[in-house]
C-alpha cells in the first residue's frame, strides 16, 4: 500500500458532562483525528493525547509535531508492505505512542477496507459482541455518584469503575457497596497514591472490588509489585504499561494481575496484539480502556476488544455518554444487556461524518 497523503485535523467537542480524575477535570475535549488516504481509500485514526501531559507525557501538540516532522518523513513515498509492518518502520522514533497509534490504526482501517473486511476480522478478533463497563469521574457529592451509578446500571452496563483519589476513596466505595451489594465494582486512582499509602488502599479490600487500577506512580512498576504483595485484590495497570517489555516486566515482577489496554498508550495494533498474546500466555486477562474518544477512537476500541483475551468488560461505551452528537454514522450504541454488537462493515465499520468533522475542525494540515 502507498500513502498518497495524510490529513491531520484537530477537533474540539464539549463533553456532555465534565469528567474529573485525580489528575484533572476535562470539560472540552481537543482531539487529533488522522485521515490516511492510501490507494484512494481513506483510513481513520485518532490520537488519544490530551490537552496537557497529565495522564501521559504526550499532548495534542506533541502528537501533531511528531506526526508532521518525524513520522510523515519516514512513511512519505514509501511502499508499505502491510499495516502490520508500520510499527517497525517507526521504531527509530522513541516513545510518542499516541502519535504512532493514530497513524498505525488509520492504516489498519485502510488496509481492512481495501480487503473489504471488517477490521476486527482482519485483526483476528473472535467476539461478535463485547461486554461494556463504565468509568465514572469524581463527583461533587455521594448522592450524585449514586444517581449516576443507578442510571448506568439501568442502561445495562455490566461493571462500574469509579475514579478515586486521596480523600475520596473508602467513603464513595462504601456508599456504593451499601446501595449496590452485588454489582461488579472497581476503582481507578490514576497514580494518585504512594506506596506509603498502602494501608488506605488495603481498607478498600473490605468492599469486594474486581481490581484496583493504577494506584501508584505512572512509571513505577517496582512499587506496584510491592503493593500487590500486600493486597488480595488484583492490581490492574494502565499508565505503567507502554511497551511489551514493560508488560513482561510487570507480569514477571508480580506488579499486576490484570492489564488495561489502550491503543494510544501502546502505539497501535501491532504492539497491542503482541501484548495481548503475551498476557494470554501468562493467564493475565486484559480489557480495553478508554480516553474519552470521539467515535473514531471508540470504533477502534471496539475492534481491539474482539481479541480473545479481552475477557473482562472494558471502558468502551455508547457515544451518547460523552457527546451530544458524535462524528460517526451510526453512533456507538449499547444493548440493554450492556454489550456492543461489533459492526460487520469494512474497516472500523462506522462511517466518519466528514462534513461534521470539518465543521468542528479548529486546525488542519495536509501532508502529501
Ligand atoms: O485512566 O482509564 C483512565 C479517561 C481519560 C484518561 C484516563 C482514563 C480515562 C477513563 C475514561 O477512565 C474511560 C472512557 O473513555 O470512558
Ligand atoms: Mg485508568
Summarize the structure.
This protein has 368 residues and is α/β, with parallel strands linked by helices. The chain has helices at residues 60-75, 86-89, 97-114, 119-122, 142-154, 170-179, 198-203, 221-230, 244-253, 263-266, 269-281, 295-304, 354-360; strands at residues 3-21, 24-38, 41-47, 129-131, 134-136, 159-163, 184-188, 212-213, 235-237, 258-261, 286-288, 328-329, 339-341, 351-352, 361-367. Helices cover 34% and strands 23% of the residues.
Notable features of this structure?
alpha/beta, 13 helices, binds magnesium ion, binds 2-succinylbenzoate, 368 residues, seven-stranded parallel sheet, four-stranded antiparallel sheet
The number of E-state strands comes to: 15
- Tell me roughly what share of residues is in helical segments: 25-40%
**Backbone CA Rg:** 20 Å
Low-confidence stretches: none
Strand-pairing-aware structural class: alpha/beta
Distance between the termini: 15 Å
Shape: globular
Q: What is the residue-averaged pLDDT?
A: 98
Number of helices: 13
β content, as a range? 15-25%
Order of helices and strands: EEEHHHHEEHEHEHEHEHEHHEHEEEHE
**Ligand list:** 2-succinylbenzoate, magnesium ion
Strand order of the largest sheet: 5-6-7-8-9-10-11
Main beta-sheet annotation: 7 strands, parallel
